[in-house]
Design a protein that fits this description.
Helix content: 40-55%
Strand order of the largest sheet: 9-8-7-10-11-14-13-12
Largest sheet: 8 strands, mixed
Distance between the termini: 75 Å
Bound molecules: nicotinamide-adenine-dinucleotide
Strand content: 15-25%
Number of helices: 17
Structural class: alpha/beta
Oligomer: single chain
């Protein structure tokens, strides 16, 4: 009996373009391709029902194809209403027989509907990005927990939520924190978000960054990358933080550090990357300069209090694709003029650009592929906690990446090993 392929996408006719772009991305993903080769032979995930919630990009497509090659039966949904590449969704359905529920610009209701449709599939593995699927399962489908082998989580925000579930005693399955692998956050969050966030700002505005004052809110992995790359493009970068260690690091990295209250008055461009709520709030929007540009590259749009901005504005209108101008009402704000919000406050690197370059997603998704295999291989043996992949898998990914780049590194000699394991030899 042939299985019906269910999907909800924008336009299946876009499949050829999507396939072309998926193939292009694959050229920069040698580690994932190597894993795909092995998975094709060994079929480690044969017959596993999986829901993948991810940004539907060319890189995700390469991961989905890899997982399918390993034998999974997968459903893919978008992890954000604005991040789907419609041509990629079409190619996955038409050329790879993968059920996709994702449309760029889908409403929050449609996004939520897709999460439930995915859960109807009764997944054994959930690959999540932000933990919406897992949170919905726990809240609405507790009877499905027994089917679950485990979950893998892509991003910082999702891991914060999973740890809160663990603390509340509701995490009844193992969760692999993919973001916490060194080969994920050191490269994806830092260099991937750094480059693609600026790419998103530039595509949405075509603005010259040199000479502009750019405020980075949050100096974690994403913030470090964004600040570093903005500096490279000539921006005068200000960092705001709540953590004294990160703030000190930013200062010694050469950035101005101050409170968001102060920065709000002088910034030309603002980027939030904290994973926190309302880090730019009403009182900050009230004092921003006329024409200030505001965007978010953290996981959820709630980093910006856009309701407050809308409430203090007399009108809002689209001025370019992914750029909306809010005209502040002079009676409700200290400074007059407009504020431009990019990408509806959603991840700007995926809203107006294409997300991270394939070369970094190669490592992130190698982690996802190996994490899925690890969960299946160690079924019923892992604790119901948030845990990282074993360090040797992380190192294996780094070694494969170096090999693909043609880079060789040194090896410890016996003498070095002996020295590193001794305490009695000093000067
Ligand atoms: N755009 C992307 O493609 C992408 C990629 C990876 C991660 N993310 C998301 O970006 C966000 C940040 O991720 P990360 O890995 O950098 O996290 P992180 O934990 O390394 O850094 C977050 C930083 O924000 C700081 N912070 C928290 N509240 C703050 C506030 N009110 N003001 C200033 N600073 C504050 C924290 O002290 C911390 O240093 C998360 O939501 C994550 O899921 C986005």
């Amino acid at each position: 009996m042939t299985k019906t392929l269910n999907y909800e996408i924008t336009n299946i006719e876009l499949a050829e373009l999507g396939q072309q772009r998926i193939d292009w991305a694959a050229k920069e993903m040698p580690v994932l391709l190597k894993i795909r080769e092995r998975f094709t032979k060994e079929q480690p995930l044969a017959g596993i029902r999986m829901v993948a919630c991810a940004h539907v990009t060319t890189e995700t497509a390469n991961l989905a194809i890899t997982l399918k090659a390993a034998g999974v039966d997968a459903v893919l949904i978008a992890s954000n209403p604005l991040s789907t590449q419609d041509d990629v969704a079409a190619a996955l359905v038409k050329h790879h027989g993968i059920s996709v529920y994702a449309m760029k610009g889908e409403s929050t209701d449609t996004y939520n509907k897709h999460v439930r449709l995915a859960l109807d599939f009764k997944p054994q593995i959930i690959m999540d990005d932000g933990s919406d699927v897992v949170a919905t399962l726990l809240q609405e489908r507790p009877d499905q927990i027994q089917d679950l082998i485990g979950t893998t989580e892509e991003t910082t925000t999702g891991i914060v939520r999973l740890k809160a579930m663990e603390k509340d005693g509701v995490l009844k399955f193992p969760a692999i924190a993919v973001n916490d692998s060194a080969t994920k956050h050191l490269f994806d969050n830092r260099y991937g978000t750094g480059q693609s966030t600026l790419d998103g700002i530039i595509r949405a505005t075509n603005i010259l960054l040199a000479s502009k004052t750019l405020v980075v809110v949050g100096y974690g992995w994403c913030g470090r990358g964004t600040a570093m790359r903005a500096k490279g493009l000539g921006a005068d970068v200000i960092v705001t933080e709540i953590d004294p260690i990160k703030a000190l690091e930013a200062k010694l990295d050469g950035f101005r550090v101050m409170t968001i209250e102060e920065a709000a008055k002088i910034g030309d461009i603002f980027v939030t990357v904290t994973g926190n709520r309302h880090v730019i709030d009403r009182k900050h929007f009230e004092v921003m300069k006329d024409g200030a540009i505001v965007c978010n590259s953290g996981h959820f749009d709630l980093e910006l209090n856009l309701d407050a901005l809308a409430e203090m504005s007399s009108s809002r209108s689209s001025v370019r694709p992914f750029a909306e101008e809010f005209k502040r009402n002079p009676s409700k704000t200290q400074v007059q003029g407009s504020i431009v919000v990019l990408g509806e406050g959603r991840l700007i690197n995926l809203a107006s650009a294409e997300g991270h370059p394939s070369a970094v997603m190669d490592m992130s998704f190698a982690n996802q592929a190996l994490a899925t295999e690890y969960l299946v291989k160690n079924r019923n043996q892992l604790s119901n906690t948030v845990q990282t992949l074993p360090e040797e898998l992380d190192r294996e990914i780094a070694a494969l990446k170096l090999e693909a780049m043609g880079i060789q590194i040194d090896k410890l000699t016996d003498e070095m090993i002996k020295y590193m394991n001794s305490w009695n030899v000093g000067t």
